[in-house]
């Protein structure tokens, strides 16, 4: 297996790690925390502890994804297409543009979620912000909505990346 192929699979693996983390949070963790206890302070504590670890791994995985994406995608593409395959190269570029749009949206949404929403919850847990159950509920609704958008975008990028790798 050549190095470009290994880098490509690392790229896809990091996307799957982030995607799996978001699916776990949205489908399992947040609903379970909400239903397990009516104590909102305990919910804030559980969510804050989870988000600290989760966003550390997400930021690390997205950094690896960006680095490996640039390393494997373009050199591999131009070696794969020969003369007389201009239409195939044009189709590749079209898919590449759609994928990059989705990736840039994810790169915008994850920090917005981290710095705009998760920090409020972690600061509420630490006592820096005043504890407000209504604010916590609104933040969690927004985080779930943004997480579903991120899940859709990452699913799209995994599918496109896998197709582009072959």
SSE arrangement:
Layout: H1 3-36, H2 40-80, H3 86-126, H4 133-165
Helix pairs in contact: 1-2, 1-4, 2-3, 2-4, 3-4
Describe it.
It comes from Candidatus Entotheonella gemina. The chain crosses the membrane at residues 6-33, 54-75, 95-115, 145-165. This is Copper resistance protein D domain-containing protein. Keywords: Membrane, Transmembrane, Transmembrane helix. With 166 residues, the protein is an all-alpha fold. The protein has one domain (3-165). It is built from 4 helices and no strands. Helix 1 (3-36) runs antiparallel to helix 4. It is elongated and about 65 Å long.
Average per-residue pLDDT, rounded, comes to 87
- The structural domain count equals 1
Strand content: under 5%
Taking pLDDT < 50 over at least 5 consecutive residues as the criterion, the unreliable ranges are none
Biggest sheet details = none
Instruction: State the end-to-end CA separation.
Output: 14 Å
Helix content: over 70%
| Shape call | elongated
Strand tally: 0
Number of helices: 4
Global structural class: mainly alpha
> Whole-number radius of gyration?
19 Å
H and E string: HHHH
């Amino acid at each position: 297996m050549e190095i470009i192929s290994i880098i490509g699979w690392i790229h896809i693996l990091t996307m799957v790690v982030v995607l799996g983390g978001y699916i776990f949070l949205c489908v399992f963790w947040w609903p379970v925390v909400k239903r397990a206890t009516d104590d909102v302070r305990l919910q804030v504590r559980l969510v804050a502890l989870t988000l600290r670890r989760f966003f550390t791994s997400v930021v690390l995985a997205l950094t690896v994804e960006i680095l490996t994406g640039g390393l494997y995608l373009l050199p591999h593409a131009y070696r794969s297409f020969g003369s007389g395959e201009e239409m195939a190269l044009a189709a590749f570029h079209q898919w590449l543009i759609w994928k990059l749009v989705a990736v840039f949206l994810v790169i915008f949404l994850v920090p917005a979620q981290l710095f705009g929403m998760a920090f409020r919850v972690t600061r509420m847990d630490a006592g820096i912000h005043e504890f407000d159950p209504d604010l916590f509920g609104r933040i969690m609704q927004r985080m779930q909505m943004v997480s579903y958008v991120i899940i859709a975008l990452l699913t799209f990028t995994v599918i496109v990346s896998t197709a582009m790798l072959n």
